[in-house]
């Protein structure tokens, strides 16, 4: 993991710990693994009377409470369940056990450009994605220019998104998301994708959202950046929360796991 070079000015504001915005209770999520075992594996399993594992537990009894104005970092190695947890909170995935309670409107970038359509232009995608994220047409009209300005890709706004580079795609997707003004904002890995000037701009915007009292959960591998951005960091390992608290301790905990 390369150390982050992104400067994060200031400190996160104090959250309102009396107001719960997200409550995840004993959430378990399993995925069916496709039955793609070879004939040989199946034969051996049958001979040994062993059941082949066909379910994978991506989240295993996760409890998480996020308060108003908190920015919670979510870290863990690949496959530890970070995206699955965000998707469960956003309602894209439904938990097998447990429940998720939310106060207010949730939006964000679950995956870069999720909800973007390759055969539509940037402009059309702003409207499509804005609608998916809960904005009305007139709200999007009002914010359209701000979104385009933020993305810095005005030149290409009427080009089909399939011709965009991944960086352009990311810029537009992030620009739409940060202009939707959700109560709870979920950010998955996108901060690692853009170039440095754009990352700085995203962080500045996240700070503004923090100051405005928004609640955020941010997944990133940029540990140093996250440590400065967040009021709290949660460490996931094999679908379980192994630490939840002080950002520095969380990062040290993850690094210790790697050793
Ligand atoms: N739709 C799916 N079907 C099957 N397995 C999945 C699916 N989505 C995620 N997984 C598995 O769940 C685990 C957790 O994935 P994910 O939440 O994406 O991890 P992270 O975001 O921390 O890298 C991974 O092992 C992944 O392969
Ligand atoms: Mg992920």
Automatic annotation (TrEMBL):
Tagged with keyword Hydrolase: yes
Pfam families: ABC_tran
GO CC terms of this entry: membrane
KW Transport (keyword) present: yes
Domain of life: Bacteria
Gene Ontology molecular functions: ABC-type transporter activity; ATP binding; ATP hydrolysis activity
ABC transporter domain mapped to chain residues: 22-259
Enzyme Commission (EC) number: 3.6.3.40
Listed CDD domains: ABC_KpsT_Wzt (cd03220)
UniProt keyword list: ATP-binding, Hydrolase, Nucleotide-binding, Transport
Signal peptide: none
InterPro entries per record: AAA+_ATPase, ABC_transporter-like_ATP-bd, ABC_transpr_TagH-like, Bact_Polysacc_Export_ATP-bd, P-loop_NTPase
Protein family according to the UniProt entry: Belongs to the ABC transporter superfamily.
Protein name (Swiss-Prot/TrEMBL): Teichoic acid export ATP-binding protein TagH
């Amino acid at each position: 993991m390369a150390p982050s070079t992104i400067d994060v000015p200031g400190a996160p504001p104090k959250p309102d710990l009396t107001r719960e915005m997200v409550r995840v209770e004993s959430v378990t999520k399993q995925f069916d693994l496709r039955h793609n075992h070879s004939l040989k594996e199946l034969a051996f399993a049958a001979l040994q009377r062993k059941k082949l594992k066909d379910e994978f537990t991506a989240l295993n009894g996760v409890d998480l409470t996020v308060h108003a104005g908190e920015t919670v970092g979510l870290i863990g190695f690949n496959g530890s369940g970070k995206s699955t947890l965000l998707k469960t909170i956003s309602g894209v995935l439904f938990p097998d056990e447990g429940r998720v309670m939310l106060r207010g409107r949730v939006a964000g970038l679950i995956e870069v450009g999720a909800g973007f359509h390759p055969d539509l232009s940037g402009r059309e995608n702003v409207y499509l994605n804005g609608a998916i994220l809960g904005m009305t047409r007139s709200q999007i009209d009002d914010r359209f220019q701000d979104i385009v300005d933020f993305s810095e890709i005005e030149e290409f706004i009427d080009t089909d998104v399939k011709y965009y580079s991944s960086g352009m795609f990311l810029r537009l997707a992030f620009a739409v998301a940060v202009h939707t003004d959700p109560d709870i904002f979920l950010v998955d890995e996108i901060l690692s994708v853009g170039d440095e000037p754009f990352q700085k701009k995203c962080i500045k915007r996240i700070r503004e959202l923090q100051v405005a009292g928004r609640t955020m959960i941010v997944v990133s591998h940029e540990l140093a950046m996250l440590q400065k951005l967040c009021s709290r960091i949660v460490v996931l390992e094999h679908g379980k929360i192994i630490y939840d608290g002080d950002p520095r301790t969380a990062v040290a905990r993850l690094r210790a796991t790697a050793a």
